[in-house]
Structures are given as C-alpha cells and as structure tokens.
Design a protein that fits this description.
CATH superfamily of one domain: Tetratricopeptide repeat domain
Distance between the termini: 110 Å
Strand content: under 5%
Shape: globular
Helix content: over 70%
Order of helices and strands: HHHHHHHHHHHHHHHH
Structural class: mainly alpha
CATH architecture of one domain: Alpha Horseshoe
Number of strands: 0
Radius of gyration: 28 Å
Length: about 325
C-alpha cells in the first residue's frame, strides 16, 4: 500500500517537472522569436521618424513633414541604410515640389537615384515607383511633357491593377499633361482616371477630378460648380497647396471670361496661402499675373506695388514674407 502511494507520488512529481520544463522551453522559444523580430533601436528610431513624416505629409502638414524626413535621413545615414536614405530623399523631393522649389526637388531626386545605382541592390517596386512619380512630377513642373510621358509609361501599363496606388497617381499626372498640351484625348485620360478612383477613399483624388473636369468644361456655370466642390474638399482637410492651386486655375478661367475683379480676388487669396508656405516660385507667378490684371481694372497703385514686390521677391535671399503678406492682406470690394 505504502509502495503504491510512493510510486504514485513519484509519477506526479515527474509529470510536474516535465510540464515545467516544457513551459520553460516554450517561453525561451517565444522570447528568442521576439528578440529576432525586434529591430535594433537605431532602425526603430529611423522608421518612426519616417512614419511621422509620412503621416504629416498625408495631412498636408508639409513643414512638419519636412522636419521629420530630414531627421529620418540623418538617422538612416548614421547606419548606412540605403533603403531608408532613398525613401527619405524621395519624400523630401515631394515636399520641395509641394512648396514650389523644383530645383531642390530635383537635387533630392538625383541623390536618391545615385544611391540606388551605387547600392547595387534590388529594392521592392514601391521604391522605384516612388522615384518614377517624383521624377514625372518634376518634369511636368518644368513643362518637359514628352519626358514626363516616357517616365510614366511603365505605371500606365493596363496589366497593372486598374486601381493600384501608383497607377492612379500616374493617371493623374497623365491627365495634367494632356490638359497642359490641349491633347484631343484629354477627356479619355480623364475617364480612365475617374474609373480608377471610383472606389478610392482619398478625397484629394475627388478634388483633382473636379479640377480636371473644370479645366475641360466649356460651360462657365459648370466650371464654377466644379471649382467650388474642389475648394470645399481641400478646405475640409486644410490642404493649402490644393486650395491655392484651385484658386489659381479658377482665376485663369475668369480672366479668359474678362471677369477681372473676380480673377484678382482669387489670385490674392492664393497668394496669401503661398506666402504662408514661403513658396517663392508660385508667389512670383501670381504676382506676374496680378501685374497684368491690375491695369485692366485701372488700379495704378496696386500695379506699382506689384512690380515693386516682384523685384524684391525675385532676389534669392528674399525673407520679407510678413511685409508681403501685409501688402496683399486685402478683401473683395
């Protein structure tokens, strides 16, 4: 009887020890797996900076996004990470473009492409597609439309998913080119863009679609409706660049309709936004348009003021943004 009880206790003890050993070994395996999956602190820091940059860019906080992308670039360079360096540079190029600095955007792009070539590595399509989109946008801003079309060609391939992120972006740029060139097939490109974005939840695409439709419409009432819809979408997300661009495009159509005062009003509102962004290139373009418009409304004082500011802002070391904003801090009369 005693032997039987003792044997039973031995078996229970052995079972308990085995169970503990299995649990302990499982814990070690889990711990080792987590340790393998966890990235080094330096990489985690760089990835977080890049993610914060992307988040701010998607919210149209370009200044803040630029700070994060610059810090991410430094962090990636400190560990010689080509992938991270290329992504940071391409994103900085996008920021420069959004703020009207085409020359700086091109400098960032060249660096990114050189690093990609020097690394000898084959990265995923996301990186190469990113560079394609940035380069095509730069060429559009430089009015090198044929070059831009050739760059975009791989992303316009019908074999790609019709609603893929990069195909939609490529179609958007292709419509921009078609409208700028007065392409007779512009409406067909617009139709492709409309179909590709029909299931997208990105409101910026909807706003772009409204602007494209306004640019191709011959009906002034339709134009006003489309531009108003685009403005409402951009305003709801405080998309400064989108608001300014819409106002500038709308003013151009009103100029053609000889609605000079309305055109001036929209340009001044756009100028105020460009000044806030410290976008020298677009500020100059707007001032040049205002200089042509003021004589048509017999406003000699504003005409003189505009030519004065054009001379000042054309200087590369221009910094008098607050004074410029105050000079054009006017309202419709």
């Amino acid at each position: 009887m005693i032997k039987s009880i003792f044997k039973s206790l031995q078996l229970k003890l052995i079972f308990l020890l085995l169970s503990t050993a299995i649990l302990f070994s499982c814990s070690i395996i889990k711990l080792e797996t987590n340790q393998k999956q966890q990235l080094p602190d330096k990489i985690q820091t760089a990835e977080k900076l890049l993610a914060h940059g992307v988040s701010n860019y998607n919210k149209y906080n370009y200044k803040q996004a630029g700070i994060f992308f610059n810090n991410a670039l430094y962090a990636y360079r400190s560990i010689d990470n080509p992938r991270g360096i290329i992504l940071s540079l391409s994103n900085l190029s996008k920021i420069a473009l959004a703020l009207g600095n085409v020359q700086l955007a091109e400098q960032y792009l060249v660096k990114a492409k050189n690093i990609l070539a020097a690394s000898g590595k084959s990265f995923n399509n996301k990186i190469s597609n990113n560079l394609i989109m940035v380069e095509s946008s730069i060429q559009i801003e430089k009015q090198q439309y044929n070059i831009a079309k050739n760059i975009l060609q791989p992303l316009l391939d019908p074999k790609l998913s019709p609603a893929s992120e990069y195909r939609i972006a490529a179609l958007q740029n292709r419509v921009r080119i078609a409208i700028a060139e007065h392409d007779p097939y512009a409406a067909e490109w617009l139709q492709q863009f409309s179909q590709a974005t029909s299931k997208s939840h990105q409101t910026s695409y909807t706003a772009r679609l409204m602007r494209f439709k306004a640019a191709l419409s011959q009906d002034s009432q339709e134009n006003n409706s489309y531009y108003n819809k685009a403005l409402n979408i951009y305003r709801s997300s405080a998309h400064q660049v989108g608001i300014a661009a819409t106002l500038e495009e709308w003013s151009q159509q009103q100029f053609q309709l000889q609605q000079y005062r309305s055109a001036i009003d929209k340009l001044v509102r756009a100028l105020f936004i460009r000044i806030d962004l410290k976008d020298r290139r677009h500020s100059i373009l707007i001032l040049e348009k205002l200089y042509k418009l003021y004589p048509l409304t017999a406003n000699k004082e504003k005409e003189k003021q505009t030519i004065m500011w054009l001379k000042k802002i054309s200087s590369n070391d221009f910094s008098r943004w607050n004074e410029l904003a105050e000079a054009y801090n006017t309202y419709p009369q």
